[in-house]
């Protein structure tokens, strides 16, 4: 009995650590996503203002002398090329940073569902364990055998779901590290 209780405590600690890791990712990746999205929006607005500036320079150049007109148009062309780079930056950040960070909202939700299933199995195991102890105290042999088989089934279920959770969290951590890189 004492051995089984320690196993439950170890699994509870492991589950708590996994919950903390998922919550940590949810919090920080959410913040990163919001900040990067704000940066992308502001960069896009800056690009839009620069496009307005280029159009105004072209309009002004049309009213000036030929030499000044050529200089202003050359400046406007170069400034416009800079905005093309800014647009490429916006597109890259949106595709390579913001979208992957957004997807973590769904990923975290799925991991929370996995955790919930594991906790349900662990609770069922703990309930079966307490029922087994009550049955042992009463000591009828039939109930004892039935309760032990129920406990064994619940323990196997909890172990299986814990193992599945470990695998999914390992994959989650690997994907998180890959996405951060």
From TrEMBL:
Record has Nucleus as a keyword: yes
Keyword set, alphabetical order: Cell projection, Cilium, Cilium biogenesis/degradation, Coiled coil, Cytoplasm, Cytoskeleton, Differentiation, Flagellum, Membrane, Mitochondrion, Mitochondrion inner membrane, Nucleus, Spermatogenesis, Transit peptide
Protein known as: Uncharacterized protein
A GO cellular component entry from the record: ciliary basal body
Family per record: Belongs to the CIBAR family.
Gene3D superfamilies: Arfaptin homology (AH) domain/BAR domain
InterPro entries, per database record: AH/BAR_dom_sf, BAR_CBAR1/2, CBAR/FAM92
Organism from which the protein derives: Bambusicola thoracicus (Chinese bamboo-partridge)
Topology of this chain in the membrane: Peripheral membrane protein
Pfam families attached to this UniProt entry: FAM92
Principal location listed in the UniProt entry: other
Coiled coil: none
GO biological process, one term: cilium assembly
UniProt-annotated location(s): Cell projection, Cilium, Flagellum; Cytoplasm, Cytoskeleton, Microtubule organizing center, Centrosome, Centriole; Mitochondrion inner membrane; Nucleus
């Amino acid at each position: 009995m004492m051995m089984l209780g320690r196993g439950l405590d170890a699994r509870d600690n492991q589950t708590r650590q996994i919950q903390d890791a998922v919550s940590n990712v949810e919090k920080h990746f959410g913040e990163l996503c919001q900040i990067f999205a704000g940066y992308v929006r502001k960069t896009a607005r800056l690009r839009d203002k620069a496009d307005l500036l280029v159009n105004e320079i072209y309009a002004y150049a049309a009213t000036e002398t030929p030499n000044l007109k050529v200089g202003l148009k050359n400046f406007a062309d170069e400034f416009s090329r800079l905005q093309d780079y800014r647009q490429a930056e916006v597109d890259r950040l949106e595709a390579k940073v913001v979208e992957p960070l957004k997807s973590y909202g769904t990923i975290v939700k799925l991991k929370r569902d996995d955790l919930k299933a594991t906790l349900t199995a662990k609770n069922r195991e703990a309930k079966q364990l307490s029922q087994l102890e009550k049955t042992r105290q009463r000591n009828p042999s039939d109930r004892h055998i039935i309760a032990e088989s129920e406990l064994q089934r619940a323990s196997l279920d909890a172990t299986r779901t814990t193992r599945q959770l470990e695998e999914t969290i390992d994959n989650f951590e690997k994907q998180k590290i890959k996405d951060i890189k």
